[in-house]
Design brief:
The protein has helices spanning 77-88, 104-113, 142-153, 171-180, 219-232, 246-254, 265-268, 272-286, and strands spanning 5-7, 10-12, 16-18, 40-42, 59-62, 65-68, 94-99, 121-125, 160-163, 185-188, 192-195, 197-198, 203-204, 210-214, 237-240, 259-262. The protein is of the alpha/beta class and 300 residues long.
Length: 300
């Protein structure tokens, strides 16, 4: 049975990754799950300098998932290079670095600092607010998507995955723009925007009022977007959004995804990624599937 997948020349032992922002740098989960069994660890967003994130409360449970407005809190790229890469290299897994920034120059600076480092793939988070354009996310305007991807790609010495925002009218337009700008692969979806109000306090639950929604409730939307994107571009796609087990993951693979990422489910079950790997293997064994590629994109 072969579960290996190839993302831009990088071979993963299986198609299961962790979603950025839900697994830290792996330290938080290393005593709770076997990182060696995961195809790749996608680390929390890494910025040029440390970010403090948003004030609390910044997490809220909602029906079918959760809202977060953590604000990409992280200690910065220098800390990541010195502390997190050596830690992750203890494990038999690939390292994907999620890059965040509020300006194109900030994105470029992170990617420059990562040149020559012992990592496998880069993931560009274009859902960050673009401070040069009034705070609108980079990823909501196809023209800006193509521009930022093109500029960051000039500095990259590893394949560049671009993580798409679902908060757009047409996900295929931004997907095509990212590929036109030089994206080697795409990942989607990032969180949907949502809100929760405490009717007893008569106030929003989150300090920033609006946050990103993730979890099982977003899966049908994520699956539809992955299906549409896989039909319109010819680069590997990493699907995510509400995946909790092997069958969820297989839906995305059948829709065309090369790999999948587990996010919110890890907060409920720290072994969710490993359990998903096992679930895929059990399915393949049950139905006599010799190679995971036999299932990819079978939904026309």
């Amino acid at each position: 049975m072969n579960t290996n997948v190839d993302i831009c020349g990088v071979k993963l032992k299986n198609p299961v990754m962790t979603a950025s922002g839900t697994f830290g740098s792996g330290r938080e989960f290393s005593e709770l799950t076997d990182i060696n069994k995961i195809g790749a660890v996608v680390v929390k967003g890494v910025a040029a300098v440390s970010w403090q994130g948003n004030p609390p409360p910044r997490i809220a449970e909602v029906y079918g998932g959760m809202l977060n407005s953590v604000g990409l809190q992280n200690p910065g790229v220098d800390h990541f290079i010195e502390e997190d890469i050596p830690f992750l290299r203890q494990y038999d897994t690939k390292i994907v670095v999620n890059v965040c920034g509020h300006t194109i120059d900030q994105y470029r600076e992170v990617v420059k600092r990562l040149k020559g480092q012992d990592i496998d793939l880069l993931e560009l988070n274009i859902s960050c607010p673009n401070v040069d354009e009034g705070g609108m996310a980079f990823g909501t305007d196809p023209v800006m998507v193509e521009r930022v991807v093109s500029e960051v790609k000039k500095e990259a010495d590893r394949p560049l995955i671009v993580k798409l925002s679902p908060n757009v009218t047409d996900i295929t337009a931004t997907a095509k723009a990212a590929v036109s700008g030089g994206a080697d692969a795409l990942s989607l979806i990032n969180t949907l925007t949502g809100m929760k109000i405490d009717v007893h306090r008569r106030a929003p639950v989150l300090y920033r009022k609006i946050g990103g929604m993730s979890g099982p409730a977003v899966k049908p939307i994520a699956l539809r977007m992955v299906y549409e994107v896989c039909k319109c571009v010819d680069v590997p796609v990493i699907g995510m959004g509400g995946i909790s087990n092997g069958e969820d993951a297989l839906e995305f693979i059948m829709a065309g995804a090369t790999a999948v990422a587990i996010g919110t489910a890890s907060f409920v079950n720290p072994n969710a990624a490993v359990d998903t790997v096992r679930g895929i293997e059990e399915y393949m064994s049950r139905y006599g599937i010799e190679d995971i590629s036999e299932l990819r994109g079978i939904i026309e």
